[in-house]
Write the structure tokens for this entry.
Amino acid sequence: MLSAFKQFFERAVIGNSVSSLTRWGKITPRPVIRRMQEDAFRRMVRRAARHQKFFVDQLHERGLDALKIRRPEDLGDIFTTPEDLISRPPEDFLCRPPQAVFETTGTSGPPKRIYFTYDELEHSARYEAAALWENGLRPGDRVVCAFDAGYWVSSWVTFLACKHLGVFCSAIGKPQPRELYSRMGIYRYNVIVADPTWLVSLSEIAEKEGSFPLKFIMAAGDRMTDVYRNYVQGVWKAPVILGYGSTEAGGGIGMECRRGRGYHVDEFNFLFEIIHPDHEGYGELVMTTLSRRTEPFIRYRVRDVTRFLEEPCPCGAPLRRIDMIKGRRDEMVVMGAGNMHPAIFERVLHDVEGIGENWQVAVRQEGLRDVLEFRLELTNGIEPRRVEQTISRNLETRYPEIWANHVCGMYRLAFKFLPPGTLAQGRKPKRLVDERVG
Ligand SMILES: [Zn+2]
């Protein structure tokens, strides 16, 4: 029974339209998905053990036999890390000649270079198309995609996803928001795909000068706080749907549905693990690519912190969900105030008047005590004392447990005010840093 269903599914994936792929994605029972993942994982491990130098070295060092590996846990501490991709030559990961390369930058250091073939990009786009279809995208709609192009993969995959659906699409890179705004009416776009901060800038123009009727907005590429999301939805009177992806994943990892919380993840092309979970289930996301042949990743450490949402989604789809990304693994700091992550400070600072959008929170050490230092840029000559009071009050009311640790002397609060522009950083600013030594 399982294998008959699986064959059915595979035929649907290979041969049929995006709408039927979406339907199969919704009705495939979980045990079948699990079984398909296990089979694909074993195939992927065996293939990498034949063709990928990096993985061969890892197995060899630990004396492991690829034929005996059935599940991710069987690999023990073998992972592929972003640092591996940077420090070793691409040939160590490539299993066949590539046809395309994309890059992704982290908070610091050189870019990671990820290689694909054309058919892999098309494949990834089919699954993004299925997720967009599920969210209501149909032929006749007009999409404008303002994801950064350059060496980033997302713009291309979204363009190809629209191609699969036969949907009109302009993939325009990331222009000044006004450049798009001036063309909204000309091209009658009714779906916008872009990153959260850029969308906010576009929405500020639309709020002043008038919006256009939209079916929905898809945002991805960075975290989007509820404040931003509510603002953008309010301006356009259209739902904002969040997607989650990466260049390493070759595009989408997951997307929201209209019914439940979190992202439904693409379990047909990835096997996900959450490692080192805390008591709430939050840990680092790890993914194994199940369908990539050019540069497969076995247990790639995504470095994002999230958790699985175990209860079934109201939409009925069998694909597992992960919660909103809580932060980058390298931005989590354990200190006297508790487990700190950047999302906490976004929530504390977003509505504080008189501070610029560049900010940083540092954990320092003074003697035996932790210091939580807010580094801020003042924008309109507001009195620093007032900013300090507002931040303390926000921390107290929004995170009583963190505040309680302050009251009992587990850490000290400090504020540092800097001239505007001092904190301007790269594409992904490091919001929370640990500067304690030893
Ligand atoms: Zn759902």
Residues 257, 259-260, 264, 313, 315, 317 surround zinc ion (CB under 6 Å). The mean pLDDT is 90.
